Each structure stands twice: as structure tokens, then as C-alpha cells.
User: Fold this.
Amino acid sequence: MIEYIIVIPARYASTRFPGKPLELINGKTMLQWTYEAAGKSQAKEIYIATDDERIYESAQAYTENVLMTSAEHQNGTERLSEVSEKLSFDDDSIIVNVQGDEPLIKAKHIDLVASTLHQSEQAGIATLCYPISTVKDLFDPNIVKVVFNEKQLALYFSRAPIPWNRNLFPGLLQDKTCEQIPSDHLTAYYRH
Assistant:
């Protein structure tokens, strides 16, 4: 069995949805649902990392593994790095970053990321992706897209559709409709 640690970064000050980790869903916060979903994985430890006292206090109701981190971090990866330093994780530790807004994440997918990191000598970081199946998702800037090579190593991440289809997309965007894109054109697009 692979030993790994999960860190769930959670911040209150989201630009698109402030307070999202504390949003109630069927009587529990989104963050608690995410934590419980992560708890179904094979991780040996799970930590929540936040820069907000409200999130910290809320999370303490269901785990002692909550850490306050700097408010200066630009992303969850930086928050994870601070936790790694604070807790003195070994350099060869496998640490899986589970976003705090993933209450429906499957344990098998978390385990898959950890397994991929354990098996790959080329990659120091692994992420999940899956095919984009709708044109709406392809053009949604809230959905991060990923392009990877034949070895499944990520090359680019973008909020814009990548690769850009220069022959098809400009005309569609001018018309303000995307319904005309043939579904077979979507096979090249993946969601991070």
C-alpha cells in the first residue's frame, strides 16, 4: 500500500464565490463534505490548510488537523508547501492536494493520483483530467483545461480552450453561439 498525505487548501476570499468552503450542503459545509470524501481514500493523514479564522473554527468541529497558513499565498499549491514545511514532511513524501470545493471527489481518484506519483520517476506533480464533453464547458473560463503529450505529461493549463482551433472558433465566437461545433471536435479537450 502506498503511503501518502492529503492536504486540502481552503480559502474564504474566492473572487468568484466568497465563503464557498463554508457553504452549507445538506447540513454540512462544502469543506466538511470534501474532507469526508477524502477520508474514504487510503491516505494515512488528511490536513486542512486555511488562512481564514472562520474556516479554521468550522473545521475544528470535525478534525484536529487544521492549520492556519499565510494569507499571502497565490494558490493552493503554495498553501500546501507551507503545510509541508510546518509539519516537516520528508522530501520523498507523496502529498495529494484535494481542492476544498470538491465534495463529490471519489476516493479511487485520489488514490490514483497518489499511485501515479509513486510510480512515475518523471513527474513530481500529478493531476486528474477528464474529457470535456460539452461546448459550454469548453468555453467556460471557470473550467481549467489541460493539454498533455503522448506520455500523459501536462504541457499547458489554461482557462481558454486549448488547443485553439483557429479555423473553427473565431467564427463561432463572432456569432455568439457555440452550438455548431461538431462533437468530434471535442475529443482533443480535457478538463483539469
Remarks:
- The radius of gyration is 18 Å.
- The helical segments are 30-38, 53-59, 76-86, 107-119, 135-139, 169-175.
